Amino acid sequence: MKESMILNMEIKKIADVLELPKLKEAYNNNYKTLREYHISIYQEFYELIKETEYIEYDNIKRKDIQWYPKIDYEKCVNCNECVNFCPKGVYVQNNNSVVVKYPYNCVINCTGCVSHACKYGAISFPEKISKSNQ
Length: 134
Ligand code: SF4
Ligand code: SF4
Known about the structure:
Helix content: 40-55%
Pfam family, one: Fer4
GO molecular function, one term: oxidoreductase activity
CATH topology of the largest domain: Alpha-Beta Plaits
Radius of gyration: 17 Å
Domain 4Fe-4S ferredoxin-type: 67-96, 97-128
CATH class of the largest domain: Alpha Beta
Keywords: 4Fe-4S, Iron, Iron-sulfur, Metal-binding
Largest sheet: 2 strands, antiparallel
Distance between the termini: 32 Å
Strand order of the largest sheet: 1-2
Number of helices: 5
Protein name: 4Fe-4S ferredoxin iron-sulfur binding domain protein
Strand content: 5-15%
Mean pLDDT: 90
Low-confidence stretches: none
Shape: globular
Bound molecules: iron/sulfur cluster
């Protein structure tokens, strides 16, 4: 999987340099497929991920670390950008509303969807969490 992602990035670089539309299209298709696969794996193994112990956080299980996004539905316009952005499949579109369906898939201390996806200030996180040796 990791090698596939690296190879795909190399394809993109070559396509950009040579300005080859077909190669760019191949990259885009590959990227979409790999991303969907990656997300589906995270969602499928959610129960295991919740039980995973984090050495760097005093061996606390992921489900006991309260780090995940919250959506303010007063501000959310249901644009779906957070669903499209998050590589871990945390957000899901459900009955015409985006929900945080897989909260513990969120990467601890990541706030990427706040800075790169949501333009409406609808996503928030708690205070960042310190590692046990810091
Ligand atoms: S902070 Fe990162 S991992 Fe967590 S939901 Fe947002 S994009 Fe996904
Ligand atoms: S990006 Fe923000 S506004 Fe759009 S669906 Fe997600 S939370 Fe709602």
